[in-house]
Amino acid sequence: MQIAVLTFDGFNELDSFVAAAILNRLRGQGWEAHITAPTPHVTSMNGVTIERQQPLDFAAKADAVIIGSGIKTREIAADPLMLGRIRLDSARQLIGAQCSGTLLLARLGLIGDLPACTDLTTKPWVIEAGVEVLDAPFVAHGNVATAGGCLASQYLAAWIIARLAGVAAAEEALHYVAPVGEKADYVERAMAAVRAFLPVEARARTA
Questions:
Q1: What sign does the dihedral 156-157-158-162 (CA atoms) show?
Q2: Contact, 88 vs 117, CB < 8 A?
Q3: Domain DJ-1/PfpI spans what residues (predicted)?
Q4: Are 156 and 98 in contact (CB under 8 A)?
Q5: pLDDT tens readout for residues 79-136
Q6: Based on the number of CB atoms within 10 Å of its own CB, is 60 exposed (0-12), middle (13-18) or buried (19 or more)?
Q7: Is pLDDT of 166 > 60?
Q8: What per-residue confidence (pLDDT) applies to 203?
Q9: What are the CA-CA distances from residue 152 to residues 58, 130, 157 (Å)?
Q10: For residue 155, what is the domain's CATH number?
């Protein structure tokens, strides 16, 4: 599985890095999550500059895509040229967005009139875009999921793994990153957020 973690200038490190790290726990099964950006280098909201692993057009080829958030998302959402470069297909791909990434999904027409999740700062902008915002950390409608709050990146990663490799694989990946002494509780809490949004066949599939 090839996964694009869309990462723009001003990105939130927790969104991009945590999701990518959890998804890459399945590297032994052929999974690869790539930091995907429109420019060769992007700088985070806290001044960390990184080199992208894939260009933005990789998102169109990926099996799954996560759109992270950042302090410049409103600028991106108002830039038709940049939006035109983000080519996604919810019929073929799993697509997730976190916090202000939800605003990009709305601008791309991938949410429609369905309710979504986002962070409290972005909430009024998403509502302004015509989307109902839920007071919840995670929601999925078919192949499109949204999450709200920096640490909700684990839910997007768990949802993608559970959908494409099964619940057991998602639980194993979460168990690895969970704090020692809290692993069972951590995994159960995370899976509780996404389990209701998994199709029956994904809940039954094993790693």
A1: positive
A2: no
A3: 2-158
A4: yes
A5: 999 999 999 999 999 999 999 999 999 999 999 889 999 999 999 999 999 999 999 9
A6: middle
A7: yes
A8: 60
A9: 24, 23, 9
A10: 3.40.50.880
